[in-house]
Amino acid sequence: MKRLIFLLFAMIVQISWAQTVALKLANAVKKFEADAQVQHGIFSIYVADAKTGKPVYEHQAQIGLAPASTQKLFTSIASFDLLGADYRYKTVIGYDGRIENGVLHGNLHINGYGDPTLGSWRWADTKEEIVFKKIIAALQQHNITRITGHVLLNDSAFSVQPLPGGWIWDDIGNYYGAGSWAINWHENQYDLHLAPGKNEGDTTRIVKTIPELQGSVLSNYITTGKRGSGDNGFIYLPPYSRTGFTEGTVPMGNESFVISGAFPNAPVQFAHELEQLLTKHHIAVTGRFKIYSTSKAHAAQWPAMQKELTTLLSPTMENINFWFLRKSINLYGEALIKTIAWEKSRSGSTEKGVELVRNFWAANGINKGAINMIDGSGLSPQNRVTTHAEVKALLYAKNRPWFNSFYNALPEYNGMKMKSGSIGGSRAFAGYHTAKDGKQYVFSVIVNNYERSAGDIVKKLYTVLDVLK
Question: Rounded to the nearest 10 degrees, how much is the dihedral formed by the CA atoms of 19, 21, 26, 31?
């Protein structure tokens, strides 16, 4: 009898607690929606009990909204399951023909499979100088000092289209709008160094790009802004383009101000730097540096690699996901989507990858209509997902063997472990939180079409989420 009374009491306390939190959330949401900043906007929230998965509170949780980078959660979790936490990208160095007396009578091959970390500065083993050191070591091991054929860069694993549909013009050409190829390099990013003028409105001057941009030139229309006005410069240079331009402002008062752009053709950039490397090490190439996608367009023959010299391996998927979520690197998301497509169907396109990810979530209880995604990173404003779907995905991750790695990768904002999302007119957060009383929550909030300051709307979203503390 005492045990029965205790259980009944515990149930009453739990129901009372849930109702209290739900009531507080309802009041916080009512206040948030009454704010003038959200007068013409739409707000969605879903909160679940992390242990039971049962809903604690929901408001417009089945309405699809632009999630911005919180969409990365769907890509990240699917990649853990579909590729594996220990998955590594590979870049294979090999040749056709024969090696005699230091001469490769044939072609040197570089076969890429989409590694977004090749030449990245985020790991010691992926830095440019280490990658090149490994390539030279493989050639020197076979005493190769001359190549009678070509250097062939095979980028056929991914589609020739490096960008997903729906990305906007203002993003393309800037570092966060970098495309993904089967051969990526230096995160497909370069730094544009600008010298501002002495007065507001003065023209700026391009000092240099690091690395030196290959195959394209920029016309510079960036002017000098007020001191302390920050980076308001944009680069307009789409994939495969030979010319582009810049617009906007950078602040006065700096000898050199840096904004970052995206390579218009990552395989071309890599090919040029590889050519410089071979020249530096006195390895002569009789032929040319060729890229598969370009040769295919001209119906040129492409010999197959016959023998392998070495294979460059990326960090594990677990480590890639850490930076993907922690720093919200769009390139990683687009590479992951295409990699899922390549590994599962040998068709490395964004469209196929998105189809497979949506199928994965449909098989795990999330209706496809709740995840209308068209890219892997959330950069497209055409994406539409629900807060309910985001919470279901986060609940799914909690029961997977790799969950600790996933959880660790999530950033911390407002004292909560959660992924943020931010594009024009959209702010979102989704993640996990343990309250002071030990209650564990999984939550997602998205607001679209708010007005004025992004900083102010974030503070107001935090006020709603503070109820869970």
Answer: 150
β-strands 151-154, 108-112 pairing: parallel
H or E segment and range at residue 31: helix 2-34
The Cα 195–Cα 151 span in angstroms is 37
CA distance 172 to 189: 12
381: cis peptide before it, omega within 30°?
no
Provide the residue ranges of all domains of the chain, joining segments of one domain with +: 23-84+319-468, 88-160+288-313, 186-262
Nearest to 115 by CA among 161, 211, 180, 163: 180
- Contact call for residues 324 and 78 (beta carbons, < 8 A): no
In the block, tokens 């993003």 appear at 171
CA distances from 171 to 214, 222, 261, 395 (A): 20, 16, 10, 32
Whole-Å CA distances, 72 to 165, 375, 376, 449: 16, 9, 6, 21
122: nearest Cα among 75, 173, 176, 186: 186
Using a 10 angstrom Cβ sphere, with 0-12 exposed, 13-18 middle and 19 or more buried, the burial of residue 407 is middle
CATH architecture of 23-84+319-468: 3-Layer(aba) Sandwich (3.40)
What stretch of H or E contains 307? strand 307-316
Please count the CA atoms within 13 angstroms of the CA of 155 that sit on its side-chain side: 31
List of E strands, 229-306: 232-236, 243-251, 257-262, 284-285, 289-291
Q: Which fold has domain 88-160+288-313?
A: D-tyrosyl-trna(Tyr) Deacylase; Chain: A; (3.50.80)
Show the tokens assigned to 334: 């687009």
> What tens-digit pLDDT sequence spans the chain (469 residues)?
555 554 444 554 555 555 699 999 999 999 999 999 999 999 999 999 999 999 999 999 999 999 999 999 999 999 999 999 999 999 999 999 999 999 999 999 999 999 999 999 999 999 999 999 999 999 999 999 999 999 999 999 999 999 998 999 999 999 999 999 999 999 999 999 999 999 999 999 999 999 999 999 999 999 999 999 999 999 999 999 999 999 999 999 878 999 999 999 999 999 999 999 999 999 999 999 999 999 988 888 899 999 999 999 999 999 999 999 999 999 999 999 999 999 999 999 999 999 999 999 999 999 999 999 999 999 999 999 999 999 999 999 999 999 999 999 999 999 999 999 999 999 999 999 999 999 999 999 999 999 999 999 999 999 999 999 9
Distance between CA atoms of 309 and 110, rounded to whole angstroms?
Answer: 10
| C-alpha separations of 222 from 141, 234, 342 in Å | 49, 8, 40
